[in-house]
Design brief:
Rossmann fold, single chain, 4-stranded parallel β-sheet
């Protein structure tokens, strides 16, 4: 990888993403190993999560390593102790830090002062581990990434940012339909379009969910109100009411299109129950693949894993 840390999908290039996906698929088939038997990962969470915590913990156990979890109450980043000091101390105890933070700036400060790899387990800017699992899931079901069209319906949030960057790097077309004022960040859009120009893919932003969904190979949605935005829930529900992924919208997609959601889902809001439980839904494959994608990432960062690169 280009850097010791993994804060953004943009820390990878196309070949590195494909290598991680190949490694994840191999590890998924092989199961347990002792690759990281002498390694310790610290999970530092300002925000709780079911999938992120369990997938990282199980990933380290299946690789023979050990995981230590620090809850939001135990952390107190910037309050009980400064972020640089925490990074320096944990670097003396552990081989890597996976941090789930409110602010992306916290991750950047931590990475600047840590002597061990820092992994973005979610910030307000990106969710790169989710994007790796997403690309693995799409590849498993479609046997390709290049040339596919991924349509993201809803908020231009951290998950959308990482998915857009990953799609552009891998040559997949990316469309996002968001209401005014809830678009993806301009600087990330600019970067994604640069990646897309190099890979031969396209990036399309629209306010029309039907335009985004038409002929798409993947329909992707996420909650309208993320953790920390609870005070905006009623207003967001009103604004995003026309962005629900339902049977009508799925029928606009290409035959065999996948329905994806990073979970947790607010059924009846961003997605209807019949769609998320329908034949097109791969959301639980997607959730499982957090484990396998993160095993590949940890092996790359901590185990020096090298596998043969196919020609892409």
């Amino acid at each position: 990888m280009n850097a010791k840390d993994f804060l953004s999908i943009a820390d990878l290039n196309s070949a590195e993403i494909h290598r991680l996906l190949d490694s994840a698929a191999a590890m998924k088939a092989e199961g347990w190993s002792n690759l990281l038997s002498d390694k310790i990962l610290v999970l530092m969470f300002e925000k709780p999560s079911t999938r992120t915590r369990v997938s990282f913990d199980v990933a380290m156990r299946q690789l023979g390593g050990h995981c230590i979890y620090l809850s939001p109450d135990e952390v107190g980043l910037g309050q009980r102790e400064s972020v640089p000091d925490v990074a320096r101390v944990l670097s003396r105890f552990a081989d890597a830090i996976a941090a789930r933070t409110f602010s992306h700036e916290t991750l950047e400060v931590m990475a600047a002062h840590a002597a061990v790899p820092v992994i973005n387990a979610l910030s307000d800017r990106e969710h790169p581990c989710q994007a790796l699992a997403d690309m693995l899931t799409i590849y498993e079901h479609k046997e390709a990434l290049e040339g596919l069209t991924i349509a993201c319906i809803g908020d231009g949030n951290n998950t959308a940012h990482s998915l857009m960057l990953a799609a552009a790097l891998c040559g997949a077309n990316f469309r996002i339909a968001s209401p005014p004022g809830y678009n993806v960040a301009g600087d990330i859009l600019k970067q994604a379009r640069e990646f897309a120009a190099a890979s031969g893919s396209t990036i399309t932003c629209t306010e029309d969910p039907k335009e985004a969904a038409a002929g798409a190979d993947v329909i992707y949605t996420d909650v309208w109100t993320s953790m920390g935005q609870e005070a905006e829930a009623a207003e967001r529900r009103r604004i995003f009411a026309g962005y629900q992924v339902n049977e009508e919208l799925m029928n606009l997609a290409a035959p065999g299109a996948l329905l994806m959601h990073p979970l947790p889902a607010h059924r009846g809001d961003e997605v209807t129950d019949d769609v998320i439980e329908g034949e097109s839904s791969v959301v639980f494959d997607q959730a499982e693949n957090r484990l396998h994608a993160q095993k590949a990432l940890l092996a790359e960062l901590l185990g020096g894993l090298e596998i043969s690169l196919p020609d892409y």
